[in-house]
Design goal:
Elements lengths: L2 H7 L1 H15 L10 E5 L2 H15 L5 E5 L11 E6 L5 H10 L4 E6 L5 H5 L2 E4 L12 H13 L5 H12 L11 E6 L4 H15 L3 E5 L15 E6 L4 H9 L3 E3 L5 H18 L18
Parallel strand pairs: 1-2, 1-3, 3-4, 4-5, 6-7, 6-8, 8-9
């Protein structure tokens, strides 16, 4: 069995654990009304985007999300949340070092004592969500579970949906498609990008992701019978209807978006195996990007 398979299966239990620990770390994360930013790279950036959008939707304060190397020096924040599974990502580390002494910082990481953990003012350690696979699954969703619980989301339905996503058959046979498109709205736009990244990393698939209302502004032109269009969370029905008119197959599960990611992670592994690829060790990738 691939490591990623067991890591995917562990997620709902870890979401519960993260939700339980949220009150204990509440003082380290942005307080209501506090202007904040969330940073990361790759998957961690997608989770940062989802968190930032959710926090603003809940009217908890202005929240930006940025790729770690692109955090604007022209904005003012009270706190920066840095997400890094390994705690060694160069861009995250450099940004934290540049903020030291000027802005409160907190790192969310799987590795205590890592360079990122040591450079942040405070650290939230999710070592129980660490992974062997290069491809991130459970650390990302467990981080999001923690951040959702912190801003007041109740996760019982998400956990139940996640458990169901592990037990049921995939809604489609992934090898039947040549193109995979993921659509989101609001806080799930970042998760749509994360879904596309999983298939790209694990299975070298042709994947795209868009804010749902943008899909008709050009990208839909390449859709057809070999296209899968998957809605992450609620998506305007007219967009899905337009995609269906091209001959594309539509998946609109209506479950919690984190549970949707579980299904998509499983699909990425199945597609990788069908293509003779190792989903734990994607080509050209390492577990952490550490620059000279």
């Amino acid at each position: 069995m691939h490591a990623i398979t067991s890591e995917i299966a562990s997620q709902p239990a870890l979401w519960r654990k993260a939700a339980d620990m949220a009150p204990a770390v509440a003082g380290l994360l942005p307080a209501p009304g506090e202007p904040a930013a969330a940073i990361g790279c790759g998957t961690s950036h997608h989770i940062a985007r989802a968190y930032a959008a959710l926090r603003e939707e809940r009217a908890l304060g202005t929240t930006d999300a940025a790729i770690a190397s692109e955090l604007s020096p022209h904005r003012s924040y009270r706190r920066v949340v840095a997400i890094s599974r390994s705690g060694t990502t160069t861009e995250v580390l450099r940004t934290l070092e540049g903020l030291r002494g000027s802005i409160a910082t907190v790192a969310v990481t799987a590795v205590p004592g890592s360079p990122v953990a040591s450079s942040a003012g405070h650290t939230v350690v999710l070592d129980f969500a660490n992974e062997q696979s290069v491809v991130q699954t459970r650390f990302a969703t467990t981080t999001l579970a923690l951040l959702r619980a912190h801003i007041g989301d109740r996760l019982e339905a998400a956990i139940a949906d996640g458990e169901a996503a592990l037990a049921r058959a995939l809604p489609v046979q992934p090898s039947e498609f040549r193109q995979f498109v993921f659509l989101g709205q609001g806080w799930t736009v970042g998760l749509a990008d994360e879904a596309a990244l999983k298939l790209r990393e694990a299975a070298s698939a042709w994947t795209e992701a868009y804010p749902a209302m943008e899909y008709r502004h050009g990208p839909i032109s390449v859709a057809g019978p070999g296209t899968l269009v998957w809605a992450i969370g609620p998506v305007d029905p007219s967009v899905l209807a337009a995609a269906a008119d091209t001959g594309a197959t539509i998946v609109d599960e209506g479950t919690d978006p984190m549970a949707e990611l579980v299904l998509i992670q499983r699909m990425a592994v199945e597609l990788a195996e069908a293509h003779g690829l190792d989903p734990d060790r994607p080509k050209h990738l390492t577990r952490s990007v550490v620059l000279p």
